[in-house]
């Protein structure tokens, strides 16, 4: 599906320099090197961010694409100091959303694991807000819907598959992957007015969520590796299950080992039966 890409003026700064000291990323902003958030979709920023495993990867991401969010003061000062854990908490949440979407579609992973990972990421995300609720909204919803009194994570582990599916259905509606809205900007030029349709996206964090939505909108899905759970694009129309040859190989080797063990077990069983 070809989608018209609207002109967008929501720009975001990259970083001139990023250093990691005592768990804090110190960023000096390169306000002369900005980019348009929605146009960066073509570089799959959400996938890059989700897969930034090491501190070095994450520092590099922030250098190339800027911090996730900035206060007005930080924008004015051209610097920001952000705990690395802020990035990790949001990264874990974004990965949990991608995995839950993949599990819902039956593409990768089991739904129970994905749901458990998501509710845990929701809790951690809520705790990281400046004025957190006792527990995230998603937890309260599940409590009400299924009369859960203890830990929501434990409930997910013990729930029936039917309950897990119903819970996933309720929570997927709640996942805010599109906090942005469309807006029209009006400008007067000499004797005629100009209207520009654009996305109102305030920061990189919102843009990453918007990209998850845009994948679905353009039917340009992400694949979740069934072995290591890394997210990636399938390069061909032919659906791929694994992100790399190594993961494919590891999965095949494991299957082969399992088959060998089963064969051994059944031959022992037969020997025992023959002896009787
Ligand atoms: Zn993999």
Give a description of the structure:
It is a single chain. 50% of the residues lie in helices and 18% in strands. The chain is of the alpha+beta class. The protein folds into two domains: 11-232, no CATH class; 244-276. It has a three-stranded antiparallel β-sheet with strand order 1-2-3. Strands 4-5 form a two-stranded antiparallel sheet. A hairpin with a 2-residue loop joins strand 4 (181-189) and strand 5. Helix 4 packs antiparallel against helix 5 (111-127). The radius of gyration is 23 Å and the shape is elongated. The model is unreliable at 1-8 (pLDDT under 50). Bound molecules: zinc ion (ZN).
How many distinct domains?
Answer: 2
Number of strands: 7
Strand content is 15-25%
> In angstroms, what separates the terminal alpha carbons?
66 Å
- Give me the strand/helix succession: EEHHHEHHHHHEEHEEH
Contiguous uncertain segments of 5+ residues: 1-8
**How much is the radius of gyration in Å?**
23 Å
Shape: elongated
Instruction: Let me know the average pLDDT.
Output: 88
Please list the strands of the largest sheet in the order they lie side by side.
1-2-3
Number of helices: 10
- Secondary-structure-based class equals alpha+beta
Q: Which ligands are bound?
A: zinc ion
Helix content: 40-55%
Specify the biggest β-sheet. Answer: 3 strands, antiparallel
